[in-house]
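Protein modeling request. Please complete all fields; requests missing the sequence field cannot be processed.
Requester role: graduate student
Desired output: 3D structure, token encoding
Chains: 1
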Amino acid sequence: MSTSTPLPPEALDEWLAALAAALGLDPADVPVGTLLDVARDVAHNVARPAAPLSTFLVGLAAARNGGTAADIEAASALATQLALSWPPDQPVEVR
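Delivered output (95 residues):
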């Protein structure tokens, strides 16, 4: 069932635990703060729609490089560095 009501902030942990379990992942392996930081930096410095796509790419890159916490941190650091240095006048095409 789809709803237009956004998830309240206090339900974030519950949602992430349920999604991680459904995907066969350990919720403890999800660096929520790091990923939210990447999303924030991308949204503020590149474009809002780029934030979820960027965190997906961070996860994909980390998985392809071994999937360890260090791999997630490295991919996150690269994404943040690129977002923070993104030229403000650089056009971003949103499809």
